[in-house]
Amino acid sequence: MQFAIVGYGKCGRDYGSLIQALRGASVSCVIDADPSRAEAGARTLGAAQWSANATVALRRASADAVVIATSHASHAQLARDALDLGLPILLEAPLALRLPDAQRVVAYARAAGTVVAVNFWARALPALRRIRRRIPRPTFVRVEFVVDPLSESWTGSAEHGGVMGLLGSHALDLASFLIRSRPRYLQAMGGRHTRRADLADTVSVSLRFDNGGLARVVVGEYGRSRLGASWHVLATDGTITETAHGDLPGEGSRSTGLTGTDAGCSRPACQAQFESLRAFAEAVAGQGKPLAGIDDGLRAVQLADAAYEALGSRRRIPIAATPLPVGAGPVYADDPAPYRRNHGFRA
Ligand SMILES: NC(=O)c1ccc[n+]([C@@H]2O[C@H](COP(=O)([O-])OP(=O)(O)OC[C@H]3O[C@@H](n4cnc5c(N)ncnc54)[C@H](O)[C@@H]3O)[C@@H](O)[C@H]2O)c1
């Protein structure tokens, strides 16, 4: 299976190694808005093609599948470009920044009828699989994702969805995945402590699900202690309580010699990434399902959007049953720039 990688930054480079470690897979094309990165990536991975323009390059690429690992504001448009060509996609979260854009990508995916996976790698963590096995019907789940302040990075900026774009999608997906029910209501409070911009850097979300389950999701840029971990999960059904914690994929030491049938990296987050890639490749080959599909990506965007709405309005937000895709149209058509600057947040 030949892959095109779009976005050859930190995450794209990791994908390059993971794809090379996947039996029967190789990288045929590297695309990055920075041409020197694209060219260096192609050289490193032995890819015949490289380009700075995804729209043009995907049309010419001899690729069976596309991995999208770019900054968040470009995800929806790049997904659309790949879907226009009927190419299966493994997309880094978030699927889109706002719900209407996520709905449009879903409409394109339905029309293309191809596999679209969202890389919710945390679902493959052994500790979380154990929790799901031991507590199939949790009454309460707590998920916390913490990073160092993002004020110097594009990931923290409002135009890329801020802390909810980066961590919110993953944490909200994990809560829904563990509770195994449809979210019905959401409340949220936020604070601005580590940054000067308008956007919240710490968000606490409460969710109620159809089956009565409750979840508390906290995402924040307050950093972790030297002994701490970046993600923490607690789940309970009133009888059994389980906890787990760990690092995020890009953190900690990482093996560079990726060979053989696994990722060649012993860290759970790295192994989980590899599981996610393998499940996607198998789904493209017609065997099984990806770790998380496009509807999971849509729900995470819906919840992250609702969290920002709750911060702005200070109201409880009802979560509509997974909304039907809106008609096809350009992404960001109804997403005014002033709104995106702070997502309606008021401290
Ligand atoms: N799963 C993981 O292990 C993991 C870890 C870190 C980041 N991420 C995710 O990966 C994605 C990229 O993050 P990163 O840390 O690698 O960022 P990065 O800034 O290191 O790299 C992003 C790259 O995308 C390129 N790019 C941006 N827009 C583009 C476009 N329209 N077309 C082509 N290239 C474009 C940039 O030039 C840059 O090289 C984000 O979605 C992030 O949340 C995932």
Explain this structure to me?
The protein has 347 residues and is an alpha/beta fold. It has helices at residues 10-21, 35-45, 54-60, 75-84, 99-112, 126-134, 162-179, 268-284, 294-313, 337-342, and strands at residues 2-6, 26-31, 49-51, 65-68, 89-91, 116-118, 140-146, 183-191, 202-209, 214-220, 231-236, 241-246, 317-318. The strands form two sheets. A seven-stranded mixed sheet has the order 12-11-7-10-9-8-13, covered by helices on one side. The protein has a six-stranded parallel sheet with strand order 3-2-1-4-5-6, sandwiched between helices. The longest helix is centred in the last third of the chain and has 20 residues, at 294-313. The relative contact order is 0.17. The structure holds nicotinamide-adenine-dinucleotide (NAD). Residues 6-12, 14, 31-34, 37, 54, 69-72, 74, 78, 92, 119, 121, 166, 249-250, 273 line the site of nicotinamide-adenine-dinucleotide.
Structural class: alpha/beta
Oligomer: single chain
Mean pLDDT: 88
Largest sheet descriptor = 7 strands, mixed
| Number of distinct helices | 10
- Give me the count of strands: 13
Q: How much of the residues is beta strand, in percent? A: 15-25%
Ligand set: nicotinamide-adenine-dinucleotide
Considering DSSP H and I runs of 4 or more, what fraction of the residues is helical?
Answer: 25-40%
Radius of gyration, whole Å? 19 Å
What shape does the CA trace take?
globular
> What is the element string, with H for helices and E for strands?
EHEHEHEHEHEHEHEEEEEHHEH
Widest beta sheet: strand line-up? 12-11-7-10-9-8-13
Termini gap: 49 Å
